[in-house]
């Protein structure tokens, strides 16, 4: 079933009775060519690109809960390609290009809104760093603009420009960045994969990975054993548990990241804005709610809820940046389980088991990577070789020390990212 | 969250710096080889459930402590000084 403006009007005239379920709800078959473990954004896009780009349609996505019920269903929805280091730079550049064509490709409204991502700087040193980072982005072929304080004021007049402690020295504007509707991204990829013949199997928890003689043979699940020629793990915060079923110990520690939404307000924010003195970023959803978040709570956690000190830090940063939002009430907050890697960059690689693939370590930045991650992972699974934009996301970089991608420059150590 | 410092008693989480899993105490010998060091520095069991992790009471007595904690419920069940912890 294709979607169009005409279809919306027609259904409006006839009582909305013509809409059908967007994907099937099949029982698992005994065997597949590829099993993707994890029905989140990355897993669904992997399945979609396996089918679309490589013609591999005998694929199952196994999800222990419901599709898109994890981090893709709860995040701050920011899309950007403003990384600096080789490895990340080309990957997120490729991912942003996929974002730009996603709605046409999927025939699905993911509400991709290139409203810009503006990072603020508050010192000479920070402005110099932004100039350098902007140059890296331009060299990669993406867009970056160094804004003066006056230009920042023209973009976002509600920021506090009289703050003597954290004065606004300027900003780095990335106009092709923005936000997208997170659930729609998961649903769009799910629908696209389903239409290509991929089986999306929900309420199906993987409980074991079958390996014989170093070759993967399939998985054990809560709905029985399923054989497969290839198995692809992409389970974000639960990566360590699933990889342990294949006897692996990963360089991953799961942490909690919190985010917040306010009540709906009239439009006051033009773009995504990140505060440069304290970890804080904010945007406004199309519904009017302010969507904002901060840093990790900084301790290992699977609780999917955070503690009060980070909430306090985020609210303080909000009030410092924009005192005008102080009377807005917070509607809800949540905590997601982040698969933190030692250098803060992801892993898309083969494993020592033939036919078993690993995609994890997206830390707190997985949403913008959804199309690029699926595209590159599907390439690796289908062809057995790394896709060029993701070729540096190697698992062995921690052992060798070669090719670490530490954007923050703090070291490849677990508690530093 | 409050952590039970063996010296100071229950103290606010903000007084502590989180280092990571208590496996950090099992430092291999200098000649243990690349694989052992890689495992020590990077790879983690990352348990969903009870864990033991290393915290520094930096805004308090300065002690390094090993906290037994549940990563799913955030329940804290005890802490000992790192120097007395059995690793």
From TrEMBL, chain A:
State the superkingdom. Answer: Bacteria
User: Could you say which cofactors this protein requires?
Assistant: FAD; FMN
Top-level EC class: oxidoreductase
Q: Which reaction does it catalyse?
A: sarcosine + (6S)-5,6,7,8-tetrahydrofolate + O2 = (6R)-5,10-methylene-5,6,7,8-tetrahydrofolate + glycine + H2O2; sarcosine + O2 + H2O = formaldehyde + glycine + H2O2
Primary localization? cytoplasm
* GO biological process per UniProt: tetrahydrofolate metabolic process
Descriptive protein name: Sarcosine oxidase subunit beta
From TrEMBL, chain B:
Q: Origin, by domain of life?
A: Bacteria
Q: Name one GO molecular function term.
A: sarcosine oxidase activity
What the entry lists under InterPro entries is as follows: SoxD, SoxD_sf
Protein's GO biological process: tetrahydrofolate metabolic process
What's one Pfam family the UniProt record gives for this protein?
SoxD
Q: Specify the protein name.
A: Sarcosine oxidase, delta subunit family
């Amino acid at each position: 079933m294709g979607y169009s403006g005409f279809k919306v009007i027609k259904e409006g005239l006839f009582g909305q009775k013509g809409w059908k379920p967007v994907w099937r709800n099949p029982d698992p078959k005994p065997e597949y060519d590829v099993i993707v473990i994890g029905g989140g954004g990355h897993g669904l896009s992997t399945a979609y690109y396996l089918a679309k780009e490589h013609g591999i349609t005998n694929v199952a996505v196994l999800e222990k809960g419901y599709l898109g019920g994890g981090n893709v269903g709860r995040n701050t929805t920011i899309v950007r390609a403003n990384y600096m280091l080789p490895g990340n730079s080309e990957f997120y550049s490729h991912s942003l290009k996929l974002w730009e064509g996603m709605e046409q490709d999927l025939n699905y409204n993911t509400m991709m809104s290139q409203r810009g991502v503006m990072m603020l700087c508050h010192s000479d040193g920070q402005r110099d760093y932004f100039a350098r980072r902007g140059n890296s982005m331009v060299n990669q072929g993406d867009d970056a603009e160094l804004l003066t304080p006056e230009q920042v004021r023209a973009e976002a007049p509600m920021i506090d420009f009289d703050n003597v402690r954290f004065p606004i020295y300027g900003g780095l504007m990335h106009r092709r960045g923005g936000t997208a509707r997170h659930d729609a991204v998961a649903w769009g990829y799910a629908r696209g994969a389903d239409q290509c013949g991929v089986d999306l199997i929900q309420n199906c928890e993987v409980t074991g990975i079958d390996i014989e003689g170093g070759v993967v043979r399939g998985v054990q699940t809560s709905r029985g054993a399923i054989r497969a020629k290839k198995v692809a793990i992409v389970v974000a915060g639960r990566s360590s548990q699933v990889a342990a079923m294949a006897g692996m110990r990963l360089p991953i520690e799961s942490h909690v990241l919190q985010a917040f939404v306010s009540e709906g307000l009239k439009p006051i924010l033009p773009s995504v804005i990140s505060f440069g003195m304290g970890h804080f970023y904010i945007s406004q959803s199309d519904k009017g709610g302010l969507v904002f978040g901060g840093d990790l709570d900084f301790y290992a956690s699977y609780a999917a809820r955070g503690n009060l000190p980070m909430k306090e830090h985020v609210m303080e940063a909000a009030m410092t940046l924009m005192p005008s939002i102080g009377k807005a009430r917070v509607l809800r907050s949540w905590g997601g389980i982040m698969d933190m890697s030692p250098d803060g960059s992801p892993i898309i690689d083969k494993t020592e088991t033939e036919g078993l693939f690993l995609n994890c370590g997206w830390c707190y930045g997985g949403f913008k990577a959804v199309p690029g991650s699926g595209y590159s992972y599907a390439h690796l699974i289908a062809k057995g070789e790394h896709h060029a934009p993701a070729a540096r996301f190697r698992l062995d970089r921690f052992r060798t020390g070669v090719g670490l991608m530490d954007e923050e420059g703090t070291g490849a150590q677990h508690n530093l990212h | 969250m409050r952590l039970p410092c063996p010296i100071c008693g229950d103290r606010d989480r903000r007084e502590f710096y989180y280092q990571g899993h208590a496996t950090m105490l099992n430092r291999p010998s200098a000649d243990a080889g690349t694989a052992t060091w890689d495992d020590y520095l990077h790879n983690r069991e990352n348990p969903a459930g009870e864990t033991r992790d290393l915290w520094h009471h930096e805004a308090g007595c300065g002690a390094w402590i090993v906290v037994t904690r549940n990563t799913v419920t955030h329940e804290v069940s005890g802490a000992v000084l790192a120097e007395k912890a059995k690793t």
